[in-house]
Amino acid sequence: MAKVVLKNVYKVYPGNVTAVKDCNLEIEDKEFVVLVGPSGCGKSTTLRMIAGLEEISSGELYIGDKLMNDVAPKDRDIAMVFQNYALYPHMTVYENMAFGLKLRKVPKDVIDKKVREAARILDIEHLLDRKPKALSGGQRQRVALGRAIVREPKVFLMDEPLSNLDAKLRVQMRTEISKLHKRLNTTFIYVTHDQTEAMTMGTKIVVMKDGVIQQIAAPQDIYEHP
Ligand code: ADP
Ligand code: ADP
Q1: Residue ranges, the chain, pLDDT below 50
Q2: Name one GO biological process term (predicted).
């Protein structure tokens, strides 16, 4: 039950910038939805409203059957992976991955099991004692994914997670994130400005322009505007 629904959602930033206009979107449980469009079209704002990092100006957001407009980020059953990974520099990989669970008072042995399992899935078991500065870009990206996985959220939100990687690694991580989606069997909402990335990863593509959704379709049914 992790359907995500936006109904008539608007976001108006101070200074009267309408970043998202009348957004209507239904994301089914277990879908891999990609929000795509040029820089500034409102993708990130949409994702951040789903995460609760940005207040909704008007309209309604549901996750499952629950109205989420006023629910704190930590109570939304989501996890978000950021472009800059947002790892804590003073903590080891293990501590970075464990932190969200520790905050939630999960018992230590349970945390340990989850961290090691996620590290195994992501092939970073050998890095658990390192600090982020001693990792490559690709490894940091895996740790950021690991930190999300251990929480076992119903919905994964990803904001341009591959844009800081070189081209070769980006292609490799695309495949890995698609595999991860199949393995975790949960809802992914993924933001990118990269058309190819969108088309190869998404089961459903949402094309945005100037704060408005232009198309919602399966990748093979998306048409290009002239
Ligand atoms: P995208 O993710 O597609 O690049 P954003 O959602 O980041 O687009 O931005 C959409 C629009 O909202 C842009 O015009 C941007 O300048 C504006 N915007 C984003 N964040 C803020 C903010 N905190 N204050 C004012 N305007 C913002
Ligand atoms: P959650 O986002 O579910 O609270 P996190 O482990 O991601 O769990 O974050 C824990 C706390 O640390 C939150 O209050 C969050 O706002 C804050 N936080 C997240 N990323 C950073 C960061 N890079 N630097 C400092 N604080 C952060």
Answers
A1: none
A2: carbohydrate transport
Residue 165 is predicted with a pLDDT of 86
The 10s digit of each residue's pLDDT in 20-31 is: 999 999 999 999
Q: What's the predicted TM-score (pTM) here?
A: 0.86
Which distant-in-sequence residues (6+ apart) come within 8 Å of 169 by Cβ? Answer: 137, 138, 162
Q: Residues near ligand 1 with C-beta < 6 Å?
A: 13, 15, 17, 19, 37, 39-45
| Any atom of ligand 2 within 6 Å of the Cβ of 86 | yes
Atom of ligand 2 nearest to the CA of 87: 23
Q: Whose CA is nearest to atom 7 of ligand 1?
A: 44
Judged on CB neighbours under 10 Å (0-12, 13-18, 19+), 193 is middle
- Is 90 close to ligand 2, i.e. is its CB under 6 Å away? no
pLDDT (0 to 100) of residue 225: 63
ipTM: 0.71
DSSP for 40-97 reads TSSHHHHHHHHHTSS--SEEEEEETTEE-TT--GGGSSEEEE-TT----TTS-HHHHH
In sequence order, what are the beta bridge partners of 190? 34, 158
Query: 86 C-alpha vs ligand 2 centroid, how far in Å?
Result: 8
Distance separating alpha carbons of residues 200 and 198, to the nearest angstrom: 6
**How much is the pLDDT for 38?**
95
- How many other C-beta atoms lie within 10 A of the C-beta of residue 119? 22
